[in-house]
Predict the 3D structure of the following.
Amino acid sequence: MKNIFCSIGFHKWLLCKCLRCGKIRKNYHIIVNGTCITCSEELTEHQHDWIACKCRTCGSTRDTNHIWDTCYCAICGKENIDAHVWTNCICKLCNKIRDKDHKWAGCICEICGKIRDMEHDWDQCICKKCGKEEHIWEVFEERTHSEFPITYKSSGGLSSDRQIEYEQISIVDITYKCNKCGKEKTVSERYGPTGIV
């Protein structure tokens, strides 16, 4: 017997099956090993419920019936490479950038902003257009100082049985200076008894 609500179209759906009247709708099956886990209906691979290029039931896609939104399918996201309208390196429709037909102004493309490693406009060591830095580093200063970290060794007994050990670690701070622009950078290296720490 049909429920009064179901007879006027107000089904109580649990995925593909109405909990009141048992009616099955084909669009909401959850298929595991060829059988719907809600209604137990056996479904083959060929019973897809296609919306354009994508099956609503299992999510698989096909390469037909795409709904093109500019250069991409609005349903599955596939690219239509023939739909692009290129202005040099950028598509007018979707703003995709391709790696050809750039309009170079020195090291930067005027259209998409891509940077290439040639034709820089150098101001000493920094390109005025893209900001790339290229320094000629030379050792300017070296300073060495030591640390003595404490390590404790226990013989397993009382706390008074602990032995304190000191291990000398030498730290070398090397300052480099660019001989073109004068910029400096410092690198620290730590050395213990067995080498670099």
